[in-house]
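From the pipeline queue, job 12 of 40. The input is one protein chain; the requested action is below.

Action: predict structure.
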Amino acid sequence: MSTTFGRIAKLNVADDILISMSDLHMEYEITFDDDVNPNESLINVWNLSASTISRIQYNDKLTLTAGYKTDGSGVILSSRVSTVNTRRESVDKITAIKVIDGPNLGGILLPERKTTTGVGKKAKVKLTRKKTYGKNVTASQIIRDLVPLLGVAIGKIKLPKDITYSKGYTVSGKVVVEIEKLARACGAAFFINKQRLYICRLAEAASSTTFELSSATGLIGSPEPYENDKERGYKVKMLLQYRITTASLITIKSRTANGKFRVRRGKHVLSGSDHYSEVEVVRV
């Protein structure tokens, strides 16, 4: 049985506003996964003063630190404020802060370029969103040329295999789609976590720390198997564990699952008396 106790949750907005669950009631659901679609998280805070609410602005930098007094705490969310709305429920005033972990990248297109066909009086100029790379270009060269168009900080780019395109390579249209195709061909995952972009094996995106999960370290119940078209693994619930995020390596000791597993997606939750992390993992 876990001896973890003394919940911690501290919100920092714009390096100026500090809110602790020891002072005000707070609830949140922080999501993370291994794709490039932006994750939306929600933080609710009860009875903030009007002056504090007015100081929380769109695009303010926001960090949420959580954990336990007996186990330490760490950052589970580092992003920017998307929306702030306050509502009343009976005598309480509840401020909902939505946070988007990164911009919506799906609509970013390759820049338009002029191309000319024909010569002389028959020459025609048209605009295109295609770009062609020369013979023997590598996937890593193309990816590093495209990534800056997304405007996202780089966490890690390391391709398991770097394909050479002997006849050249052409990209067109949406930048994310083209990077996803290249990453997949090279055996890499492509995702955003804590506002940083990763194109690498999941195993190389995480820290070298391996967390051992059992009933003694916070495991709640027994892992439950799941399966979909792409993978099979286990759904695992535990007392909130700030060390765990996308690509984290976990050694599980339980009645239904044992061994090393890699985190694909999950969430950190504080709701009423519940304070937990829930993840989906696949065997390493």
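Job complete. The longest helix spans residues 175-185.
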